[in-house]
Specification:
Chains A, B, C, D: Belongs to the extradiol ring-cleavage dioxygenase family. The structure is a homotetramer of 326-residue chains. Chain A has 326 residues and is of the alpha+beta class. Chain A contains five helices and 18 strands. At the A-B interface, loops of A face loops of B.
Chain lengths: 326, 326, 326, 326
C-alpha cells in the first residue's frame, strides 16, 4: 500500500497546528515545568487553567493546562485560513459521519469541535486573540527558549488509515517508514505549514498522543535545558536524547512533564512547501531512521503515551511490534 | 499611504522564490567563491554556465552563474503551485501590459519570462528537475553550510508602488519601514513561503538587486565563514556584519562575490503562515531597525547593487536619503 | 628592541590575575549591570561595596564595586602560589624602590599593596576565602554566563618598559605588535596562568586600565548578551564587536559599564604553558591583528580608559598614534 | 584513605601531557580516521608511522601511529619544564627502582623512557620540534576541529596506589570518586597544566589505557562529528554520547578508532591553577557523576581498553565492580 498522492486542493484550508489542551493533576507543578523550566510565556491564568505561548508566536496560546483528575489530552487545535474554511470543515467531517459541534472557547473565535477517524479530538478555528510580538524582548528568553509549537505525534492503530484520512484533509507526507514489502506504513510525517510535519503517526495502541514538539533555535538550547533539568530535580523527566533522528533530521530531546505528557524539544527542520516535494522512504529495518547516531531509545518511549479525552485506545493492527526498531 | 491589505486569494499561486541567474565575468573565480568557499553544490556545469543548489534543496538549482562581459542579474526565478498557475500568471502580467514570453530553460519545464512594474526580470515555472536529497550526506557540508536560498532584496525607486504590485500577486508584508507621518514606505519585507520574506524592497535608485540571501543553521556557521574568508584572501569581500537586524530579527553577514554581487548569509527567521499575521511597523528614525546592536553599515551597503539585465535604473522618488538610517 | 627572553625562574610565583576593584558612582546601577545583566554572582554586599564572582570560580571575588565620587580603578589583584611568595614579592618591589605595604582586605589573607613602574596599583595575596563550587548549579546561569575573569589590558606610555618590568616578574609574552623596524613594542600580551594573557599593554596615555575581560563558553553567549543589552536599555553600552581579534584569536565584545569601565567578553583562547612557547609577532601595519574580519573599532576604544587611583597618566613616548591601526 | 595532599613542590616539573603512540594494524585506515575524519594534521609520515598534531599545537606531534601486528599503546608522553627536570626525573624514577633509559625519538630532544608503578610506559622530554602556528589557517579546520590533546584516562588495578604515585610527581587531584565509607578511591582526575586533568585513573583490570581525549571548541563540533561519522560508515565507531559528565562537567563523545583505541572528544573544562584548589568528591552511588543527564553508558565503555606495550594487566583489587555506576 503506497503513500497516497497528495491532495493539493483540499476542501478546506488548514494553515498549521495551533495548540494542545492537557489535563494536568497539579496545576502549580505544571506551571513550574512549562513556564519556569521550559520558558513558555503565561498569557492567561486562573484557578483552573493556564494559557501559554512560545516566544515568536502572536496567537494567544499554543498550550492550555487544565486542572483535572486524570492526565489526558483534551484536544489538538488547528488554525484554518478563513471563516469559510470552518464551514467547509464542518461539512467535510459531517459527511464522514464524524461528530461536529460549534464550541465556545476563550480567546478564540468560532470553533469547530470534531474527531478524526480513530477518535482523536480535534478543534478548528480561524480567529484567535492576537498578542503583541515579544520575540525581540530578549529579557523574556530563558529555559530552552521555545520559539513555537512545531508538531504533534500520535500513536495510531492503523497508520495507513490515519494517513489516508489526513491526506484527504490536505496534509502532505514528507517522510515515512514502511515494512520491507511496502505493504504497510509503520509511521508517517505530514505537514501543512511547510516544514517536516504538523502531524505524525506512529504504529501502536491508539489513538494516543505520543508527543507535542516545540521548536528551538540551536542544539545548544537543548544542552542548556539538559543541564538545567538534571540539576534542578528534573533528572527523571529526561526520557531520551539528545540525538538526531534519521527521519526528519531533527536534533531532538524528549522529556516528560509532571503528569507524563511527553514534550519533544526540536531543532533543525527543512522546507517542504513545494507541491511536488517527494516524501522520503525509510525501511523499517534501518535502525538509523530512529537515531542517526545509533543510541537506542528506552522502552517507555515506544510504549507510553497520553490518552485522548473520550477516545478509547485499541491495539495496533500490526501484530509484531519490533521494539528494537519501530 | 498605509501598507495594503494582504491579497489572500491571488489570481495565481506563487510557492516561493527559487533561483537567481548572475552574469559573472570570471566563471572559475565565481565557482571557487560559491562552491569551494560558501559550500553550494554544483549540479551542472559547462564552459559557459554553472548551476548550483544548497544542501537541503531538491530542485536542480537555486543559482545559475553565466559567463559574460558585464556583471548583472539576468532574472529572479519563482516556483508556482501548478502548470495552470503559469497560464494564470501569463494572463495577469499581460493584462498589466507587461512583456510575457515562454522561454526554454535547461532543467526547468515551461517557463514564463516577464518583468515587474519597474522592469525587474522575473521568471515563473512549475516544474524543475528534482534531485536526490543530500541533506544527510554530511561529508558534503563545508564553508557556511548553506541550506537553502531564502530571499531577494531589491532597490526600488518607489517602494509603495513595488509593494502594491507584489501585494496583488499575493506577497504579504511582514515588516516595513515608514517615515514618521506614515506617508511613504521606505522599505518592506514580503513573503509567500511562510517566513519573513521571499522578496524585499528598499528605497533607492532602481530597480537593482541589493542582495540574495542564503539560510544557514546557526550563527556559528556565519562565524566560521568569517574566519575562513578573512584568512584565505577574501577579507575585502566581507562587507557588513556579523550583526542582528531589528527588522526580521535576522543574524546576518553581507559579503560580495568576485563581481560584487551581494550575498546575505542569514539565520534566525520566524513563521508567518497565519493569514492574519500582522506586519511590524518600524519608524524610519529608529536606528535599531537596521542593526539591533547599533553598529553602523558601510556606505557601500546603502548605495551599491547589481543592475538587472535590460532594466535601466532610475532615481528614487524620495529625495533626501538619510544614509545614516535608511 | 626585541621582546625580552622569558624569565622562567622568577623571584616569586604569581599564579594568575585575580580581581579588580572599581569605584562606581551608583552602586545600584552597577549591581544591575554586573549581576542582573552580565550574570556575575554577588558573594557579599553592604551599603558601600559589592563583591562578585564568576560561575566557575571558587575564590570569593573577582570584582569589587565600591561606591565613590569618581569612577576609577582602585587596584588590580593577583594570587601568588604561597605565603612565602608574598614576602619574596615584598622584597622584589622594595628593592626597586616601589611603595609596599601590608593591607587588611576583607575575605583575603595577608595582602601586599604596591605599584608597578608606572604607578598601576597592584595587590598580591595567597589566601582568599574559598566558596563552594557553583559551576553545576545551572539555574544560576544567565546573562552572558561568565565563567571566570580572564585578563586585564592597560594603556602604557612605554610598552617596552612595562613588558620588561612584568617579564622580570615572570609574565611571558605570547603575542606582540611592533613597528616595522622592530624598534619598539606597540602592544604585548603576557600570561602567568597558561592562556594568552593575564595582563596586556597597549601604547597610549597611561597608566590607565583599558579593559577587564571575562571568559564565556561560546560565541552564542556573546550574541545572547548583545540581544539582551540592545533590548533592555543598554544599547549605548555596546562599544565594539562582536568580532575576532587577529591577536589572541579571541571572539570578542567590548561593553562599557554605567561608569564607563570597559569590560571585554571573551571566548576562544589557546594553551601557552610550554616554557618554550614562541610569541607571535604582528606588524603594526597589519590591520587584521586588531580585527581579523576587517571591521574598524570606534575611536573611543582607542582613546578612553579608566584612571587608576593615585596614578597620574602621562602621554605615550610614541608620538604618532595611528588611530586607524594601533 | 583520603585523597593525598597535593605535592606543591615536586622534585621535577612536568608541564603537561604531550602525546601518545598507538600501534595500529592498518596504517591507511588509521590515517583516514584521525586525519580525514577527525581533522588532526599530519606533520610527518612514512611507510611505518604517521605523526599528527592538533590545530592549536606548536609541538611536532600529539599522536604517533605506528604500524604493527597488535593494537596497543606504546607510550604516554609528557613534556617537562627544562633539561634539568629530565635528569631530576631520571633520579626520581631510579630511586623507586623503576626502569629508566635515554631513548632516541624523532622530532624530540633527549627523552627519558620509564614506567609507572603499575608498568604504564611513560616518556619525558623537554625539547620537541616546534612548528609554525596554524590555528588561524581556518581552511585547515574540518572534522571535529580538534584544538589540542587534553588528557589520558587509564584503568588502574589500585587507584589509591596510582594516585599516590602521580601525586608525588606533582599531579594534583581535581575530582575523585570514593566508596561511601571513604575508604578507597574508585577514580581520580589529576592535572599539571591547570585544567581538570592531564591524567585520570579508573578502577579496573590494568594498567590499560581507557582513552585519550582531544579538546574542541563547542558542543556543536561534537554534533558535527556525530553527523559525519554516522553517514560515512563510522556508525559502529560511536560508543557513547553525546552527554555531560557530572565529574569534570565535560560535554563528551567517546568513539573508537579502527583498532578499537578509544578517543574522547571533550569540551568544557575549568581552570584549576590555584594551589589551594579543592578537589570535588563524588560518591560512588551517585549516578550523575558519570552522566549528569542520566543516560547509561554501554558495557564496552566500562570493560574495554587498550593494552600497554610490555605491561601485563592484572585484576583490580576492588572485587565487586558495579557496572551500573563505576
Amino acid at each position: 500500500m503506497p503513500v497516497p498522492s497528495p491532495n493539493l486542493y483540499p476542501d478546506f484550508n488548514i494553515v498549521r497546528l495551533s495548540h494542545v489542551e492537557f489535563v494536568v493533576t497539579d496545576l502549580a507543578a505544571s506551571r513550574t515545568f512549562y513556564a519556569d523550566l521550559l520558558g513558555l510565556q503565561v498569557t492567561h491564568e486562573d484557578e483552573d487553567e493556564i494559557f501559554l505561548r512560545a516566544l515568536e508566536e502572536r496567537g494567544h496560546h499554543c498550550m492550555i493546562l487544565r486542572k483535572g483528575e486524570r492526565a489526558e489530552a483534551n484536544v489538538l487545535g488547528f488554525k484554518v485560513y478563513s471563516e469559510e474554511d470552518l464551514d467547509r470543515a464542518q461539512t467535510w467531517f459531517a459527511r464522514r459521519e464524524l461528530p461536529t459541534s460549534w464550541v465556545e472557547r476563550p480567546f478564540q473565535g468560532r470553533t469547530l469541535r470534531t474527531r478524526d477517524v480513530f477518535g482523536v479530538p480535534l478543534e478548528f478555528y480561524y480567529k484567535m486573540d492576537r498578542l503583541q510580538p515579544i520575540h525581540q524582548q530578549y529579557r523574556l528568553y530563558h529555559g530552552v527558549k521555545p520559539l513555537r509549537i512545531d508538531h504533534f505525534n500520535c500513536f495510531s492503530p492503523n497508520v495507513d488509515a490515519s494517513v489516508a484520512f489526513y491526506n484527504e484533509m490536505g496534509f502532505r507526507v514528507t517522510e515515512y517508514t514502511e515494512d520491507e514489502d511496502s505493504r504497510m506504513l509503520w509511521a508517517a510525517w505530514m505537514h501543512r505549514k511547510g516544514g517536516v510535519h504538523d502531524m505524525a503517526f506512529t504504529n501502536g495502541r491508539g489513538p494516543r498522543l505520543h508527543h507535542t514538539a516545540f521548536w528551538v533555535p540551536t542544539p545548544l538550547n537543548v544542552i542548556d535545558l539538559l543541564d538545567l533539568m538534571s540539576t534542578t530535580g528534573y533528572l527523571a523527566n529526561i526520557e531520551r536524547g539528545p540525538g538526531r533522528h534519521g527521519i526528519s533530521n531533527a536534533f531532538f530531546l524528549y522529556i516528560r512533564d509532571p503528569d507524563g505528557h511527553r514534550i519533544e524539544i526540536y531543532c533543525s527542520d527543512y522546507q517542504t512547501v513545494d507541491p511536488d516535494h517527494e516524501p522520503i522512504r525509510w525501511d523499517l529495518k534501518d535502525p538509523q531512521r530512529q537515531t542517526l547516531w545509533g543510541a537506542p531509545a528506552p522502552r517507555s518511549w515506544f510504549e507510553e503515551g497520553t490518552a485522548f479525552a473520550g477516545a478509547g485506545a485499541v491495539e495496533s493492527i500490526l501484530k509484531a511490534q519490533p521494539i528494537v526498531a519501530p
